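Example (one chain per record):
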Amino acid sequence: MWKIGIGFAIFAVVVLFVLMKAGDKVDMSGEKHGGDAMHAPATAPAAGEASK
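Predicted structure:
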């Protein structure tokens, strides 16, 4: 049982180290679908296409 505790403590230290090194670059919000998943803003249609 004590081996599980030590394994958890080591895992927690590694995770905290990685999060501290990554800083604000980590996105922990989960999967994104739809409009949230787009990385680039949508471009406006050309002037000629808007009148159709």
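Caption: The chain has a mean pLDDT of 78.
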